[in-house]
Structures are given as C-alpha cells and as structure tokens.
Specification:
It is a single chain. The protein has two domains: about 110 residues, PAS domain (Beta-Lactamase); about 200 residues, Heat Shock Protein 90 (2-Layer Sandwich), CATH 3.30.565.10. The strands form three sheets. Strands 1, 2, 3, 4, 5, 6 and 7 form a seven-stranded antiparallel β-sheet that branches. A five-stranded mixed β-sheet has the order 9-11-12-14-13. The protein has a two-stranded antiparallel sheet with strand order 8-10. It has ten helices and 14 strands. The protein is elongated, with a radius of gyration of 29 Å. It is α+β, with helices and mostly antiparallel strands and about 325 residues long. Helices cover about 45% and strands about 25% of the residues.
Length: about 325
C-alpha cells in the first residue's frame, strides 16, 4: 500500500489508469504548438486509429462528422487561450457507423504544462441514442394524440350523418369509440410472465379498422382478404401504428372521408416476404402530399426498422394505393 507524507493513499499511475478504465474514460494530451496528440490505448480504439501511430488534431478532424467539424475546430481553438473547463460533444465517423464522443478538459494557460493540455475522451454513443429515442417517442406521442383528436372528430361527423336521432348518434359513436379502445388494448405490450401477445393478421386488422366500417352493414365499406398469418407482440405494435396512420389519413382526406368511399386490404405471402396492399377508391380526388410529414416519416422508419420492409404509395386520382412489404420472420416476432 503506497501512501503520501500525510498518510493518505497515493494516486499512482496504475491506480489512476484503473480508475479511468472503470469510468470508461480515454486519456489524451495536445501540444498546442506542434498540434501533436498523445493518446492512450482506449483513445486509439475510440477513434479507430492504429495504436502507437503519430496523430495530430488535424488527423483526427478528418474523422469528425462534417456537420460537427467546424464547431469542434472553433472549440479547440478556444482551448489555447480561454481559461476554464471545457466540454464538447461531437460525432465521428467509424466506417459506416457513427459514434458520439465527449471531450472534457481544462483550457488556457492554467490547464497546461509546457504548452500541453491534458484531457479525456468518453464514448457517449449510448446516451445520444437514448436521447434520440426519447425525442422520437415524444414526437410520436404528440402525433398520436393529434391523430386521436382528428379521428374522434371524423367519427363524430360520420355518426351524425348516419343517425336519424341524437340517441342513435350517441349509440353509434359509443360503439366506434369502444372499437378504438379494443384496438388500443390489443396492441398494448403484455405485462408479467408468460408468452408474449400474438394475433393473426386478419384478427389484427379487423379490430383496428372496425371503428371506420359501416356499423349497419359491417364489411360493406372495408373489405379484408388476408391469410392466416401470425403477428408477434413486437410486430403487432409496429403494424398497428402503420395501419392507424393509414386509417387516420384516409378518414381525413381519403376514401373513408366520404360515405361512398371503399377500402380494400389484401395480402400475399411468398418466399419469406409478406406483401399487404391497401387500396382506396370512391373518396375525394387524391393529390400527392407536397412534403413528407412526421407521420409518414414514422411509418417508413417503422416499416424498415421493426418489420424489415418498406412502404410505397401510388397517388392515383381515384384513390391512393399503399403497398407494404414486410419480412415474414419479423412479422412473427
């Protein structure tokens, strides 16, 4: 056990290295006159640079994401003269992947020894990804709430047009809102132990689209021709989000916005791919959107990320057609 003159435990180089490793910190120094950097082993790995190679700040700058490189350059220029602690987060390119790094140290003459500043790097990729996920979820929640208000308003209008009395309207609207509630319950993740929630594709879409069908003659406005495919718990939530978005747009602008509009949903499965075709007709004249909204971006991200597929739109004047391609294995997950 090594102690200093006061009897306190001394911080040897080995113990400092152990503490830095435990905290996930990489150590580095920068000679502000020669631009030469000295990196420890973890820093070399973090930047994807061969261990032991001579590295300058200019060399590392070539690995910084183009969006961040000017900002990082200005920040490190300020380190030369501005006294005080500094912290800057930025993204670097590691082949096809992106990695987030936080650089922390003390700038200015007070933080230097012989014109060399000493600092740390830390990989904060997981934190940044969590922040991006949280922001996306907040945006998704806001979008879903707005959609829910739009759907409720549209269903109220449909119930008012099809009912002869206020009592009939109330009963019709109640049934439609109850159907929305059943769809919501179906897509909620299961809690507790046991097997995950599953449903067939036909069952899932029947429940999801029930609120928008003709209450007097179910199946007369919305026609489903679907195989008996199993949809797993994760895929249920994702596919429900996509169908919910399509139905919301249809009831606002498409075939379901008018009493004469029809929706046909069919599906085929072959060679590990599931293709679902959403066909609208009989609604208002269709025009392709000028720009992609949050809902469309969310749908495309969900289709590619969770379902391993894609969605394509055909904006025909007589009715929009959406073609959803999904990986069959992911659909069962």
């Amino acid at each position: 056990m090594v102690e200093d003159g006061s009897g306190a435990l001394a911080w040897t180089e080995e113990r400092l290295r152990s503490a830095a490793d435990a905290a996930g910190m990489a150590l580095w120094s920068w000679n502000i006159d020669t631009d030469q950097l000295a990196l420890d082993e973890r820093a070399y790995r973090l930047w994807g640079v061969p261990a032991g190679s001579r590295v300058t700040f200019r060399d590392l700058s070539e690995r910084i994401h183009p969006v961040d490189v000017d900002r990082v350059g200005r920040a490190f220029k300020a380190v030369r003269s501005k006294d005080g602690p500094f912290e800057i987060d930025f993204c670097i390119l590691d082949n096809d992947a992106h990695r987030w790094i936080s650089a922390r140290g003390h700038g200015g003459p007070a933080g230097m020894v012989d014109r060399i500043t000493f600092a740390t790097f830390m990989d904060i990729t997981a934190r940044k990804q969590a922040e991006e996920t949280r922001e996306m979820l907040i945006g998704e929640m806001s979008h879903r709430v707005k959609n829910l208000f739009a759907i409720t308003s549209a269903l109220t209008s449909i119930a008012a047009h099809s009912a002869a009395t206020a009592t009939e309207m109330a009963a019709d609207l109640t049934l439609r809102l109850d159907a929305l509630g059943q769809a919501h319950d179906l897509v909620l993740p299961s809690s507790g132990e046991g097997a995950g929630k599953t449903a067939t594709l036909d069952e899932l879409l029947t429940i999801l689209l029930a609120p928008y069908d003709d209450r007097a003659a179910p199946g007369s406005r919305i026609r489903l021709t679907l195989p008996d495919l199993l949809v797993g718990e994760i895929a249920i939530t994702t596919l429900a989000l996509v169908v919910h978005e399509l139905a919301t747009n249809s009831i606002k602008y498409g075939a379901l916005a008018t009493p004469s509009g029809l929706l046909d949903v069919s599906c085929t499965s072959q060679d590990g791919a599931v293709v679902l075709v959403w066909t609208e007709q009989g609604g208002p004249v269709v025009r392709a959107p000028i720009k992609q909204g949050f809902g469309s971006s969310l749908v495309m991200r969900s289709m590619s990320g969770q379902l391993g597929g894609s969605i394509a739109y055909d904006w025909r004047a007589e009715g929009m057609i959406a073609t959803l391609r999904m990986n069959r294995d992911k659909l069962a997950t």
